[in-house]
Amino acid sequence: MAHMLYTYNYLQAYRHTITRKIRCACSTLDCYAERRKFCEADTQCYVENLSSVVTRGCIDDKTPILCDNRKSTKLAHLDFPLLYCCKEEFCNRRVVPTEQPCKYI
Q1: CA triplet 72, 73, 75: central angle to 5 degrees?
Q2: In this structure, what DSSP letter does residue 66 have?
Q3: Rounded distance between C-alpha atoms, residue 23 and residue 41, angstroms
């Protein structure tokens, strides 16, 4: 009986770590339409600064390539969003990405 209880507790803890989401500040059009100020992310929060328009939200992809701030040399003449990605609760709330050297691919 003790072994079954241990197994049950272990599985409950494991399931919690898999399904745990983090809350992020959110100012996307979806959040605005639903009158929400936060969203729940599977992996990360983000802040995007594109031409001085700042947007905050959630990322559910496991490997969000935009978080690397990579820019194609073919697109060097276009405005490109500056992104800050983070993995803590509401970590995107008081951050605004500023101009930084992009990694060109």
Answers
A1: 70
A2: G
A3: 6
Q: Tell me how many degrees the CA angle 67-33-89 measures, rounded to the nearest 5.
A: 40
Inter-residue contact 90 to 46 (CB < 8 Å): no
Amino acid identity of 100? Q
Count Cβ atoms below 10 Å from residue 50 Cβ, excluding itself.
13
Characterize the bridge pairing of strands 53-59 and 44-50: antiparallel
For the entire predicted model, the pTM comes to 0.69
**3-state SS assignment for residue 94:** coil
CA pair distance 91, 19, nearest whole angstrom: 19
> Top-level CATH class of 2-104?
mainly beta
Residue 5 — very low, low, confident or very high, per pLDDT cuts 50/70/90? very low
Q: Are 68 and 34 in contact (CB under 8 A)?
A: no
